Amino acid sequence: MEDVLHDLIPMSLSLLLGTLIGWERQMGRKPAGLRTHVLVCIGSTMFCLTTSYAYAAYGGRSLDATRVVHGVVTGVGFLGAGSIMRQDGYVAGLTTAASIWMVAAVGVAVGVHAYALAVIGTLFALLVLEGYRWVERFLSPGDENSE
Predict the structure, then answer these.
(1) What is the DSSP code string of 64-92?
(2) Do residues 38 and 19 touch, judged by C-beta distance below 8 A?
(3) Rounded distance, CA 136 to CA 20, Å?
(4) What is the residue extent of each domain of the chain?
(5) How far apart are CA 99 and CA 105, in angstroms?
(6) Is the Cβ–Cβ distance between 41 and 103 less than 8 Å?
(7) pTM score, two decimals?
(8) What pLDDT digit, counting tens, does each position of 72-117 carry?
């Protein structure tokens, strides 16, 4: 039962935090919305949690848990790159790609039980995604295409 709670708490937190960021993207009708962000977040957490099971099963000094984090960062970079589109000199999807990358970082933080860091990262991501819109509008009043 302790193992189940050990996994259930971070996976639930990851679900919640990924939902917050994904909800913001969904409300803005972005290419990667709620489900994409939640899946990336809980998947990142699950990869990190899996390392403790791998260590218990295979142990030894050759197991380096940080390699999982490296793999998540690299893999999610490719996922984010798929959301970037270019047409007629206009590039769209950069913020969506960055939010996918950020939600993976949140998932990794939850997976290694850095809960406060994950919550802070989520709050900062929401601040940037929502709060900085007015800064962009102020700096580029004629540009209606900002993501």
Answers:
(1) -THHHHHHHHHHHHHHHHTT-EEETTEEE
(2) yes
(3) 22
(4) 2-139
(5) 10
(6) yes
(7) 0.76
(8) 888 888 888 888 888 888 888 888 889 999 999 999 999 988 999 9
